[in-house]
Amino acid sequence: MDTPPQVPPPLPPHPRFNLSRGAWIAWAAYAVLNLALFLIRKSPADAYHIGELFGGTVGALILPTILALIVWRLSGRSAVAGSATFYVVFGFVMLGQLSQFARKSESSAAMNQLAKESQQLREEQRAALAQGRPIDDAKAVKLAERASANLAAEAANSSGNDRLVAEASKAFMDEVLAVKKRYDQAIVGIDADNFWSLAKFSTGAPAEARREAVRAYVKASTEMRELYDEDGSAMRRQFESRGASAQTIRDALAGYKKGAGTRLPLLRKIRDCESQLAQVMQEFIDFAEANREQWHVDATNGKIIFENQDLLDRYNGLIKRSNEISAEQTEYQKKMVAVPPAR
């Protein structure tokens, strides 16, 4: 009788790739930490930021797992090699996240400090206007420059929508600084301290240079008006040019309008005063040039002597209008710096 063939014993099962319990514990701890950092940063609880939170948390598991699986296969299905790879890659992911959080925290602290200094500057400006002193524009420009630098750092340390927002905000801030620089140059060009002095008025080329200075002032003032319109058009353009979503643009404009508060209508009124003042300036140049032979400077006391009362009345009328417009503008400036910061 034939002996039945011997059935060979079953082959041992092929080892399967599994994350160790320690790996799952490490990832769970990271997920909790990531949520805690999200809450500490007080990130907006909108769909984008919540999606970014979960996406980053899941991504921190997927990337180390894929690389661990590759090493596990290449090493002959070595569980030790796979687990070591997971821990190393996962550690780098965590270090990157913590480093990014630290940089964002530094940027946030810098912005908070700027907000405090801006409030202090408004208080100084309020006191200066109340005492009839000029406000410190140079300090305001330096604060804006620091804000631009902080936004650049925030953009460098962010990604996705957060980076877009920081980049667009920085671009708007840089536009503000550029327009302010041209405006300040136009103010210097007018030579306000001597503009209304007939004793220093000359006809011909000097008079035309004065007209050109006034035109430059009008242009700069118009740029300022357009930059700070109540619809936030300039800021909207920066976001739209970067392909921001409609929701992001709405959120940015809402923040812009909340931060500006009631200052925007006051800024418009200040620009209106500048437009009126420029008109009086042009009339003054025309008056002085057309009647140059009708007045002279008294050599004994330096006063202007007009040939007739009508010219004196017209001159006084121009000076009165310029003073009234300047006074009205100062009142709007006082109201603007008196507006409390938005919360």
What can you tell me about this protein's structure?
With 343 residues, the protein is mainly α. The chain has a domain at 179-231 and 261-343. Helices cover 76% and strands 2% of the residues. It has 11 helices and 2 strands. The chain has a two-stranded antiparallel sheet. The mean pLDDT is 78.
Question: What's the topology here?
Answer:
Elements: H1 21-40, H2 47-74, H3 79-130, H4 137-156, H5 160-190, H6 192-195, H7 205-227, H8 233-240, H9 246-260, H10 263-290, E1 295-297, E2 304-306, H11 309-338
Antiparallel strand pairs: 1-2
Helix pairs in contact: 1-2, 1-3, 2-3, 3-4, 3-11, 4-5, 5-7, 5-8, 7-10, 8-9, 10-11
Quick description:
By secondary structure, the chain is mainly alpha-helical. Helices cover 76% and strands 2% of the residues. The protein has a two-stranded antiparallel ribbon with strand order 1-2.
**Biggest sheet, strands in spatial order?**
1-2
Q: Give the biggest sheet.
A: 2 strands, antiparallel
Portion of residues within helices: over 70%
The helix-strand sequence is: HHHHHHHHHHEEH
Keywords for this entry:
mainly alpha; 343 residues
